[in-house]
Structures are given as C-alpha cells and as structure tokens.
Amino acid sequence: MSMKRRDFLKTGAGAAGGAIVGAPALLKAQSDRTFTWRMTNAYPPESPFYVTGPGSPEDFCRKVAAMSGGRLQIEHFAAGELVPAMEGFDAVTSGTVEMNAANAYFWTGQAPAAQYFTTVPFGMNFQGQNAWIYHGGGLELWHELYAGFNAVPFPMGNTGVQMTGWFREPIESVADLDGLNMRIPGLAADVYSRLGVNTQVLPGGEIFPALERGVIDAAEFVGPYQDRRLGLHQAAKYYYTTGWAEPNNVTELLINKDAWESLPEDLQAIVRTAAMACNLESHTWCEANNSDALTDLVDNHGVIADTLPGPVVERLQEATFDVLSDFASQDEQARRIHEAFFAFRKKHASWAALSEGPVQRLVNGSLSASI
Which pLDDT belongs to residue 29? Predict the structure, then answer.
C-alpha cells in the first residue's frame, strides 16, 4: 500500500507539474496569435465623426491596435471603397468582412426592430439610451436580435440630439408637410409618411445634390457641424429643431459572430472597451463643435434656425405612438424590445425630470440673466 501511495503521489505530482508548465505555454500561444480584420462603413471617406476624428471608426481601429499591442489590426474602408454604403450588414453577416460601422436603423429590411438600437422618436437622450443599452438589458436584446444573422453588435458612437432638418420652405402647420419629399431614415420616416410626406433614405454624400436640385424638399442629417460640412445650408435655409425624430443616435459596431468568437477573451475585452471609449468621445466631440457651427450658419450664411410649431410637434407625437404601436404588434421579438425600451424610458424620464431638468432650467436662467 505504501509503494502504491508513493507511486501515485509521484505520478500525480508529475501530472500537476506538467499542467502548471503547460498553462503559461498555452497562454503565451494565445497571446502570440495575431488577427487582421477589415471594417467597412456606411459613410463616405473623410466624414468627421462617422469615419475620421476623435471617437470615429478609424480612431476605434487605432485604439484597438494600440491596446492590443498590434495583435488585432483592423483595416478601415469607407463607403464605396470595398462595398457600397448600404451593404455593410450583408458583408458582415456573410463573412465577407469582419466588421462594419453604420446605424442599425439602416437594416430595417433585414431586422426591423434594430431601429430601437439607433434611436426612437420621442425616445431617450444620449444618457438614457446608453443607460438602457449598457445597464437596462438593451444590449442583451440587441445581441439576441442579431443572433440569427450570425452577428454581434455594440454601440460605438453617439451624436446626441439631432436637428429636425433642413426645409426649402417654412413649416407653419401640419398641412405644410403634406406632399413633401424628404430624406430621413428610421422610424421617423414612418411617422412622416402618416402625415403625407414622401420619405426616402439617401447616403450622406447624396443628400446635398438631391436637395439642391429639388429632388427632395427637405432633409435630416445630423447637426450643425456635420450639416454645414455637407453644404445643406446652400440648398435650404429653414433649419428646424426639437429633437423629436432623433433625441440621440447610436453608431453601431457590427461584428461577424464567427470572427468574434475566434478572438481570445482579452481581445474581446479590448474591442468592447475601445467601442465604449469611442461612444463617449464621439459624443463629447459633437457637443464641443455644434454650437460654433450653428452660430456660423445663422450669423454668416443666412440660416433661419427655429423650433417646429407646437401643433406640428403634437401631431407628430400622435403619429409616432400610432406607428410604434403598429410596429410592436408585428411579432413577439418586436413587442419585447418595444416594451423593454419604453419601460426603461418611463423610469429614466422620472429621474431625469428631477435631476437634469432642474439643472438645465437653472443653466438657461443664468444665461438669460446678466452675469
């Protein structure tokens, strides 16, 4: 018995020693493995925020390369450089490329409920949308929605509130919307359609020529900085706001699921962290630049910036909840996402009314007073 016990201990110690030696070797083999991926984009080359600049997809690629010590290199391709602007979803889900940067509401033909993960008319602001995605179950629902497409999504940017848009003629009543041709994506397009607007989705690079030639009468893009860069003020002078259509706007990082699962856990963590960093950085970049751009548009380019008339906003809100009610009844998954979104919206709104609301009123009061 004593010999067998000594033999067992000796054998066991040797096996354990081998495991201890083997584990670092395995970890080293994983840490030595490198990956070279490609990312496509729905926006044209040199587009600030959407392609270049702080918190942009190109910046995301640089962050991942630096954080991973070069183990994950991502080559970025703007719209048209590898695939057309609106074909990134299919390129990722088919495995043609590993990543795409766009907005989830572009994929309504493939996954209609994806719109809730970009923005919802009369929905939540940047803070509320991110709170829902990161801590309110939104990201899990987003992943569940895309599971059938062999894709994994993450938020990678946010413009914050967007302007209602540019109009060639003033909007003074609901009747002025009837018959308009307008570029606008997402659920807001369905809302406008209920009021007689003919809507279409155009890539960013095609908006100005269509507006200038009168092919469309109105267009929504992003906000003062981005819109000025496209020259939209040269084709229309009436610039409306309220933020009803897009109280925030999430940039989507779409990843092929097989490629994602091939990454070691540390590289997955780097991708998630870099995307979260870009989400914050891109939003603060927008906040830092839009004020000066709007002042320039009004003071130097004759732009008339105004809020939509109250009765128009009220009618848009009525139409919005009709559209959302119909949308939620389409299928079980859409219903679950809709109910989860609005349950969180209600909760967040009650807190925001007691926190951000009073602060904003104090700020506005200070600005109007002599300081």
Answer: 52
